[in-house]
Amino acid sequence: MPHLPTPPPGRARPVRLAALLLVLLALAAAACGRPGSPPVKGPRAGDLPAYPVARGFSLPASPTWRAAERRGRLVVGGKEDQPYLGERDPATGVRRGFDIEIAKMMAAALGFPARAVDFVTIASANRETALQNGQIDLYVGSYTINAKRKQQVGFAGPYYMAGQSLLVRRDEHGIHGPQDLAGKRVCSAAGSTPYQRIQADFPQVVLVAYDTYSACVDNLLTYQVDAVTTDDAILLGYAAKAPDQLKVVGRPFSKEPYGIGVPRSDNALRFALDDALAADERNGAWRKAYQATLGVSGMPPPSPPPIDRYPAT
Ligand code: GLU
Known about the structure:
Elements: H1 15-31, H2 63-71, E1 74-78, E2 81-82, E3 86-88, E4 95-96, H3 98-109, E5 117-121, H4 127-132, E6 138-139, H5 147-150, E7 153-162, E8 164-169, E9 185-189, H6 193-201, E10 206-210, H7 213-221, E11 227-231, H8 232-241, E12 246-249, E13 256-263, H9 267-282, H10 285-292
Parallel strand pairs: 1-5, 1-6, 9-10, 9-11
Antiparallel strand pairs: 2-3, 3-4, 7-13, 8-11, 8-12
Helix pairs in contact: 1-8, 3-10
The chain binds glutamic acid.
Glutamic acid binds near residues 143 and 144.
């Protein structure tokens, strides 16, 4: 019988987070079938939903869509090291996760089949620049909508609600929430909202920044830092991959609504994506995408947050 990881010490935690944790732990347990079995790779290709590609779709009011149409490819920025959200298999180049599914769903609504989508990995700190300089058409990668970022880019959605949390080593017993971090070394991604929140609200924390959360997790495992902070959806994925070494502690201490980043002035594209999301939430595609990724063990999906269709800028 494989060793089954025990969940982190049970402190009061919202049901949604507890449910997600159970899903991820179940995944990890399934992957521990025998010694040396490969890490969880996510759902098999056949389990992923296919999204019908809109035929004859046209969005002439969107300069981004027109350029993509001319080139015959839609270029989508995202992450490649966030288990169950946006993960790239280095051997095959195949990307998987909820964000990848959302990206494919949106591409299909804009008339692009999955084979016409080029994914580009863009770190948290470089998202606004990549959208502003035309390097990417859209960004789908745990991208929190907030007022400051809205001055630089547009956001369709949100399509998911995450919350900032903490990842520590299993042998750590002194950290239960951000109030325990004074004097501790805490790692997050440069340019991320969790990094900015710790910097603003917990000035006694010794912050360490890397481009990626996987670099932070490596530093945590080698005792270079005491905790990693970012969204629960991201941290639970890392904990599920190394349940004997890592745990998520405390309860989420922020709201991180995930949006689809678009160039700021492209209101037509933003509204088209809001419409597409609303349709995919109604027709069950969103639900299937969730079930095939974050909810692969069969846990019921949460209800998606209401779409914020803010006026043209
Ligand atoms: N959602 C947060 C953000 O957009 C953290 C995750 C990330 O860095 O992608 O900054």
